[in-house]
Amino acid sequence: MEYIRGILDELEEIVADASRIPLRRGQVMVDRSDLLVMLGELRGSLPGELAEAEALRREYESIVAAGEEEGNRILREARERAEAQARETQAYQRSQRRCSENVERAERYAEEVSRGSEAYRDEVMGQLEGWLRDSLGSIAGSRQELEETSRRPSPVQPVEEDEGETWRASSA
Question: The whole model's pTM is what?
C-alpha cells in the first residue's frame, strides 16, 4: 500500500510541476512518457492489493449475510416460542372460550330469526290465500247473480196511459 501511495505522490508532482498552457485556465502540459511510466508502475502494483480488497469485501458480505440469516432464525424461533407460551396462558384460553360461546350464540340467534321469518312468511301467505279465497267466492257469487239475472224476463214492461204508451221498469 505504501508503494501505491508513493506512485500517486509522484503523479501528483508531475501534474503540479507541469507547464501551464497559455490562455487555457486549469490546463497543463505533462510529459506523456513520464505519465505512462508512472501509470504502468501503479497498474503493476494494484492487482495484488485489489485481490486482497476483493477478498475482504466478499468475506464481509458473507459475514453480513450469515448474521442476517442468524438474526432471522432467532426472530422466527422467538415468535414461535411466544405464540406457544401465549396459547398456554389463561387469558388466551379464556378468550378462545368466549369466542366459541359468541359463535354458538350467534348461530342460535340466526336459527331463531330464520324460524321466525318462516313463521311470518307462512302467516302472510295464509292471510293472502284467505283473502284470495274470499275474493274468488265473492266473484263467483257475483257471476251467479249475473247469470240468474240474465235468465229472468226483462223487468221493463209497457204500461198504457191516456196519451199513448210509456215504458216503465218494474221492480224485480
Answer: 0.32
